[in-house]
């Protein structure tokens, strides 16, 4: 007769350590700070290359939005929809903190652009508020759209591969 209970118990979750990016994506602070630093450095590099090309400017905005939305999705995917309500705005707030800390370093190095000139420390508060507004708007709208799609799929009865019944 088979035994239904093992003689020794093992916590399987402790044995399977997630991959490096998965561990990173589970941490709100680390993921958001990394995103903020990358976004600010991308902006500095783009403006250093010159703003004469409209195509480069538009491409940099698209790349920045894709990075922000992608990192937000990677983080939020680890949690239930109920937790998104507070995680999305705080994620954006920490992204802004990382970006503005990077901005302070770039201003000190005289590499932070503000329009067609270099930014100075007195420009920093307005830059921070503008970045916070844009990042909150993008992250919260994206989280709402993503949650809406998830709810729509759940209510429509479409089964995802993870929910499919295993074949016998």
Q: Can you give a write-up of this model?
A:
The chain has helices at about 10-15, 20-25, 30-50, 55-75, 80-110, 125-155, and strands at about 115, 115-120. It has about 170 residues and is an all-alpha fold. The chain has one domain (about 25-155). Strand 1 and strand 2 (about 115-120) form a beta hairpin. It is elongated. It starts with 11 loop residues before the first helix and ends in a 12-residue tail after the last helix.
Fraction of residues in β-strands: under 5%
H and E order? HHHHHEEH
Major sheet characteristics: 2 strands, antiparallel
Helicity level: 55-70%
Oligomer: single chain
Low-confidence stretches: none
Number of strands: 2
Give me the Rg, rounded: 21 Å
Number of helices: 6
Number of domains: 1
Principal-axes geometry comes out as elongated
Strand order of the largest sheet: 1-2
Mean pLDDT: 85
Cα-to-Cα separation, first versus last residue: 22 Å
| Structural category | mainly alpha
């Amino acid at each position: 007769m088979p035994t239904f209970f093992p003689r020794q118990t093992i916590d399987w979750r402790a044995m399977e350590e997630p991959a490096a990016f998965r561990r990173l994506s589970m941490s709100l602070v680390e993921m958001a700070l990394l995103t903020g630093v990358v976004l600010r450095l991308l902006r500095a590099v783009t403006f250093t290359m010159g703003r004469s090309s409209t195509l480069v400017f538009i491409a940099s905005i698209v790349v920045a939005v894709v990075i922000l939305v992608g990192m937000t999705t990677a983080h939020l995917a680890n949690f239930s929809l109920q937790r998104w309500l507070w995680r999305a705005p705080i994620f954006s707030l920490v992204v802004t903190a990382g970006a503005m800390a990077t901005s302070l370093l770039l201003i000190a190095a005289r590499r932070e652009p503000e329009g067609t000139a270099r930014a100075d420390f007195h420009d920093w508060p307005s830059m921070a508020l503008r970045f916070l507004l844009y990042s909150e708007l993008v992250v919260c709208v994206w989280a709402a759209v993503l949650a809406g799609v998830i709810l729509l799929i759940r209510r429509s009865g479409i089964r995802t591969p993870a929910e499919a019944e295993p074949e016998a």
